[in-house]
Design goal:
The structure holds two protein chains of two kinds.
Chain A (H helix, E strand, L loop, with lengths): L3 E6 L8 H9 L26 E9 L2 E9 L8 H5 L6 E3 L5 E3 L9 H5 L6 E3 L4 E3 L5 H5 L5 H5 L5 E5 H15 L2 E3 L9 E5 L19 H31 L14
Parallel strand pairs in A: 1-10
Antiparallel strand pairs in A: 1-8, 2-3, 4-5, 6-7, 9-10
Chain B lengths: L6 E3 L3 H25 L5 H5 L3 H26 L8 H7 L19 H25 L6 H29 L14 E3 H7 L1 H10 L9
Antiparallel strand pairs in B: 1-2
Classes of the chains: A alpha+beta, B mainly alpha.
């Protein structure tokens, strides 16, 4: 199966929120009551029932106002921290097509994925004790379709295709608009990529991690402490057995103090 | 002479009950925790009714561990204060690793037992504190929550290994010891070997040694 990438060309986004609506529709997510909070930002944040969101930012740079709109959703990492942290097999799986998919049937609501995610994407459903996030519409991909948000996008901001295709398209487009490809770090691979306008930096966008990487704490936990838990127990049990058969148990002798 | 013959009471009922709540909840947490940590050992969750059920069992067992830990800390901390001759005991390997002639006489607990107690204290504080954070990880700054998950696992590496040492030395490694935590009584010879100074002290409290001094 081919590996896919969703490319988000921020320079083409008009903030219509068609992707937001299409996402809710395809994934049967309920609408939420919201309140005006002084900006176009609506809803305010991702939620267990809002898997993708347009984030609005107003940034002044070189005396010029930049009105930024950004489609924010799961980045579908090549080595997903959420799945690495997850204690329940099958609750979070990385698929061959690049999507990182949650399965509520296996989710136990421990929230370790939410803590681990370098992009702060997963959200907790308190009532159900389940996490929820964008699944890259893996069910649609398997059916030969594009994700719902991409299908709905009227401006061509969201595009979807095979990894090779999209990487080429991203470079071409970035060169044309003098933009920046995100994530820039070649060591951090994702199946969602951005083209950001060159006039502003990554740090000008809200809720965007300029240096995404697997949390070091997660690395220590899973790559070091995890194997050493069993190595320690087994090693010490082996040493105790060797002590028993070589030195022998510390027997008690009548009227004698100390060891043998 | 009590009904136990020439046996000496070294632990009282409260000590034994608290010890087994602490030990039982700790082992249960260790086993369920291993079931969470290794996906290949998820059969542990299958036995216990699935990972969701096991999550709550782990939490409630952790609460029992925390409660019995707090009680046992105040119960045993006085007996586990280090004293100068403990260093000599350690330098001689406690008589466990090679033959030793003149081991410094031990009071209630030897340096190894005291060390185990303080390692338990350190690990338990880390595990309980991080466990509290993990109960509601989204209430805390993300860096703190990430450290909690890491430290929870890190402390278990140390505690898991020391628990195995503790079990071995309390059973097969020291024949006659395990009854201290079952019936509460051990033989006089055992006391002369393992806690001679405490035995002398005890005998001086009440000749005949029938007073329950644990």
């Amino acid at each position: 199966m081919a590996e896919y990438i969703k490319l988000i060309d921020v320079t083409k986004c008009t903030g219509c929120r068609g992707c937001q609506v299409a996402c809710k529709q395809w994934n049967s997510l309920p609408a939420v009551d919201t309140m005006f909070t002084g900006s176009l930002q609506n809803p305010k944040d991702l939620n267990y029932n809002t898997w993708c969101l347009i984030r609005f930012d107003e940034v002044e740079k070189d005396g010029k106002l930049n009105w930024l709109m950004r489609h924010d959703a799961c980045m579908h990492c090549e080595t997903p921290a959420c799945a690495k942290a997850c204690p329940s097999p099958g609750a979070l799986t990385k698929n061959e097509n690049g999507s990182v998919v949650h399965n509520p049937a296996y989710c136990i609501g421990c929230r370790s994925c939410i803590v681990a995610c370098p992009f702060d994407i997963p959200r907790n459903d308190k009532a159900l004790e389940k996490m929820a996030k964008c699944s890259l519409c893996h069910d649609r991909i398997d059916d030969g379709k594009k994700p719902a948000c991409v299908t709905a996008c009227p401006t061509g901001c969201l595009t979807f295709g095979t990894k090779e295709e999209m990487l080429k398209a991203a470079e071409k487009r970035a060169e044309k608009v003098k933009g920046v490809i995100y994530p820039a770090n070649p060591h951090y691979e994702t199946h969602v990529m951005y083209i950001l306008p060159g006039t502003v930096g990554v740090e000008d966008f809200s809720h965007m991690n300029p240096h995404p990487k697997m949390p070091a704490t997660l690395y220590w936990w899973k790559n070091l402490f995890k194997p050493f838990t069993l190595i320690g127990i087994a090693g010490v049990a082996g040493a105790a057995f060797l002590h028993y058969i070589i030195k022998g148990p510390h027997r008690v002798h009548e009227k004698k103090e100390g060891g043998e | 002479m009590s009904a136990h013959g020439d046996m000496i009471k070294v632990t009282d009922g409260i000590e034994r009950v608290v010890h087994w709540i602490l030990a039982g909840s700790c082992l249960f947490c260790l086993i369920t925790g291993i079931g969470f940590m290794y996906h290949s050992w998820s059969f542990i969750a299958t036995f216990l009714g699935g990972p969701y059920a096991m999550k709550w069992m782990h939490i409630f067992s952790g609460l029992a561990f925390a409660a019995s830990f707090v009680y046992s800390f105040f119960m045993w901390k006085k007996d586990c204060q280090f004293e100068p001759q403990d260093l000599q005991w350690v330098l001689k390997g406690g008589g466990y690793l090679w033959s030793v002639k003149d081991l410094p006489p031990v009071y209630k607990y030897n340096a190894g037992q005291k060390a185990f107690f303080w390692i338990l204290v350190a690990c338990a504080i880390v595990i309980i504190a991080s466990g509290v954070v993990m109960l509601n990880p989204l209430y805390y700054p993300v860096v703190m929550a990430r450290f909690a998950y890491m430290l929870h696992a890190g402390a278990v590496v140390l505690l898991g290994a020391f628990i195995v040492v503790h079990i071995y030395l309390g059973t097969a490694g020291n024949p006659g010891t395990v009854s201290a935590m079952l019936t509460g009584y051990v033989s006089r010879a055992w006391c002369e070997t393992h806690c001679p100074r405490w035995l002398a002290d005890r005998d001086s409290w009440k000749p005949g040694g029938e007073k329950d001094v644990a």
